[in-house]
Structure formats: C-alpha cells, structure tokens
Amino acid sequence: MVSIDVWNAAVDFPIFDAKSRSLKKTVLGKTGGKIGTDNKVPIIEALHDINLSLRHGQRVALVGHNGAGKSTLLRLLSGIYEPTRGHARIEGKVAPVFDLGVGMDPEISGLENIIIRGLFLGMSRKQMEKRIDDIADFSELGRYLEMPLRTYSTGMRVRLALGVVTSIDPEILLLDEGIGAVDSEFLDKAKGRLTELVKRSGLLVFASHSDEFLAELCDSAIWMEKGGIKEQGSLREVLTHYKGKDPFENLSPKALERMRQNESDPTATIGSNET
Amino acid sequence: MQATSTAERPAAPPETSSRSWRKAFTDIVEGAQQRQLWAHLGWQDIKQRYRRSVIGPLWITISMGMTVTALGILYAKLFGQDLHTHLPYVAVGFIVWGFISGCLTDGTEVFIQNEGLMKHLPAPLTVHILRLTWRQILLFGHNLIIYFIVLAIMRMPIGWSFFLAIPAVLLLFANGAWVATLFGIISTRFRDIPPVVGSLMQLIFFMTPIVWNAQILEQRGGDLSLAKLNPLYHYIEIVRDPLLGSEIVWTNWAVVAGITVLGWMIALLVLRNYRARVTYWI
Q1: 3-state SS track over chain B
Q2: Predicted ipTM?
Q3: In chain B, what residues touch A82 (CB-CB under 8 Å)?
Q4: N or C: which end of chain A has fewer CB within 10 A?
Q5: Residue A157 domain-assigned?
Q6: What's the structural domain count of chain A?
Q7: B36 assigned to some structural domain
Q8: pTM for this one?
Q9: From the CA of B146, how many Å to the nearest CA of chain A?
C-alpha cells in the first residue's frame, strides 16, 4: 500500500556558524562555564505542524510563495529529512525529482549517467539497460550518449535527465519544478511523458508555480505559507484562495471537464489529520 | 473537503522516534541491499580518477610499487637491514596503511562530499559508507599486486599461516566500515575533525612501524611497549605476520578483535542517535 502519513511534524534546521560548528566550543564551553549566550545554536523552523495523509491515486499540487517550505516539505515526504518533532511514515518506493542535475557526473558518458541516476531512483541495472533505447529516443541524443556528459549543452543535459526520470516506475513521485531550459517543442514532448509518468506513479506531489501544469497533472492542492499548511483541498478551490482569483476561468472547457471528473473521484481528496 | 475515513489511516502515530535501533539496522540492511548502487559508485570513483589515462587504475599499483621500492631500499640501508626481508616488510606495511589511512581520511568527508546527493536523493547512510569502503577495498586489491610481485622476486618462505591473512584482511575491511560511519557522522557535525585527522595521519604514519622495523627499536634500547600503544600497529601486524611468514602473535589478534567490537558498538550507537541528523548537518 502506497501511503504517506505525517503527524504534527516539524523540521528545524540548526544553523551552525563557523564557531559553533567547531569542537572548541563544545569542549571548552563545558569546562569554562557559561560565557555569554552564544552557546545555543540558532534554529530555523522550516516546517511546523504538518499533518498529512496521502493515499494511492492522489495527485497533489503544492503551492506557495518562495520560501514557504514547499521544497522542504517535499524532502520531508521523501524521507531525506526525518521530522525533528512529530512523526512521518512513508510506505512505497519514493522517486524524488528535485534537481535534474544532481547525481550526474560530467566526466562519464550519458549512458553511464542513465544507469547511475536510475540506480539512485531505486531501479536495478537491468531495468535501466532495458530503458536506454527509450531514453535515447526521447532525448534525441543518439550517438551522443556515448560521449561524456561535459560535452553536452545545458539543454541536452536537461533532456537526458528528464528522459531518465520519466522512464522509471515510481510508487511515490515527488516533483519540484525546475523543468525549463529546453526549447518549447521539446517541452511539449516532455509534458506528454510527464503525464504518462504521473499516470504510472501511485502517488504524486508536485510543487510548481505554473497553473497550467498543475491543472493538467493534479486534482487536489496544498497551500504552504511560512512553513505551515495554510489550506488543503481541491485544486481549484485552493488555487482560487491562493491567487485571489479563479485561475481556471480562462481555461479551455476540455481541461475543465477533465478536472471535474477528477474532483468527483472519491479517492482524489486529501485526508486531514486534525482531531 | 472531506477527510478520509479513520479506518483507512492508522489513527495513532508510530511510537518509535527516529532514534531507534530498528531504524539504524534498517539503514544498514537496506543500504547493503543496494549493492548495485554502491558497488558501481565505488568502482566509478576509481575509474574517474584515471579517466583518459592510458593504463588507468594500473597507476595505483605502479605508484605503490615505486614508493615501496624507493623507501624499502632507503630504509634498509639506513637501518642496516637485509633488503630481502625489509622490502617485503615495507611493502605489506604500506599496503595496509594505505587502506587504514584511506578509510580514516575519506571517512571524515564521506557525507560532507556527498552533500548534493544526500539532499536530493534519499538513500540509507550505509550506501555512502559502503561506497567508500568498497572503493578502499578495490584500491587495496590493486596495491596487493605489489605484494605478490615482491613475493615472487624475493622468494619469501611462506607457510600455512599465510592463510591467516584472509581473516586478517576481512577484519581490516570490517573496521574500515565502522571507522567511516563513526568519523563520517562526527565530522559532519564538527567540521574541525577532517583537518585534525588529516594532519594527525602524517604523524601516525611515522610513529607506526611501517618503514622502520619494530624489532630495531628494541635492539637499539627503545621500548616497544610505546609502539604497541598505537592501535594501528596491531592492525598492520595481523596482516603482515602471515603475509611475511613471521610468527603469529595472538595478542595482536586479540587487540584488533577487541577494537573491532568496541568500534562497531560506538559506531552503531552514533548511527542510532544521529543517523537522521546527518542530512540536517550537511
């Protein structure tokens, strides 16, 4: 069963400046008694009071201003950060796609990068080898895949990374935006593949500022503000409150129709944990 | 919006906090299971270093061979030792030292260097530990070739005790993993540890009987007990004795076994308590 449950979770970052990060203070601080008040490490409360219950089949949009905690929440949901307070339980194979470039080694060939990135996303070597043709097709890199990654242009790198990421079979897909830097023609193709990926995945959480993209991929939404969940509910509702106007007024009737279908789907709502 | 029914969702949060033995062991088991990943990365690290070079990782063997030959001859002359016994002595000492210092110095950086990976792709800490250990094992394997070359040239008499080198080397590898775990976690929190370890390694190298023979110290009226306080002495001895056909000293084995158990206990405790903190610290 693919699920994510979070109970009253908080993520606090200790900020060590160069001084407090050294042993000197910890060691000397104890023997020398209290000197000043700088013994405490300042803490940034990145997330607080997060309550979530996500189930198989849900497609959740994550909206909010810069610094509202979207990326941190995604990392909490991926298990990279375990909550400093509260609890989180993640069941299922997580495929986080936060930064297309990470885990890519410029010195090795595109092919090898495909394998490594795949292994990191929880695939096996054999599974990845089967997908190489598909990735080569999609990324239109052809023989270039045998070249070291450093010879690629930025656009080519994005294509490769996107090709790998969209070829996997994730149970939980966590997407952070940053899918840009490619020509529009390619982006249309990427969209199709991304939609396919989302359909294959058991559960999606997608942080983005693009209404259009969100409307296409998601059905419900979470609005983050100042490290907390301000509102969660259906996509249109939350986006209307977040933007102050209905973002889908001008949307094509076809897209609206698709969204209505999603909303009437009983599995497509977010559970809340407030007791 | 409607809330999902309580039957679907576990009503209470799990009791276990992130500081539990179960989670620490899950980290180790899941990390070990991702063998394809860490083995690939470990080997990649080595290939990376010698990419575009014609003979590639063979350079590891060659550079070790040159060091061992040069220093072996120099110190044999300095101490008035027979080259036939001293060169193999220096060779094995260097090879074991290479592994130990590699695990220690790389161990302090194991999480710091992988910051990007760790912040973007969730993986058990053990994956990074095993990647490092595997890389060091591969380097050790490359260097071991030098031993066999020296063995062939010097025609050293080796007996059945030679096979004791296998458990000795395995013990060495097991220690590499806990050292990397312990130093990796502590160094991520306290950034002074890597430079401290780095500068101490140089000193410890000269204090450990690698280029000089421990017995000379005794012959010249020195006190060997001082050298024996150095834990690394025992690690080198348990591998060196069987490989050189020397007499096996069981105290060395006892000391190494003791440190291995103690070291793993401390490393596991640190892993249990601070495993989840590492990503916050990097």
Answers
A1: CCCCCCCCCCCCCCCCCCCCHHHHHHHHHHHHHCHHHHHHHHHHHHHHHCCCCCCCCHHHHHHHHHHHHHHHHHHHHHCCCCHHHHHHHHHHHHHHHHHHHHHHHHHHHCCCCCHHHHHHCCCCHHHHHHHHHHHHHHHHHHHHHHHHHHHHHHCCCCCHHHHHHHHHHHHHHHHHHHHHHHHHHHHHHCCCHHHHHHHHHHHHHHHCCCCCCHHHHHHCCCCHHHHHHCHHHHHHHHHHHHHHCCCCCHHHHHHHHHHHHHHHHHHHHHHHHHHHHHHHHC
A2: 0.82
A3: 18, 276
A4: C
A5: no
A6: 1
A7: no
A8: 0.86
A9: 29
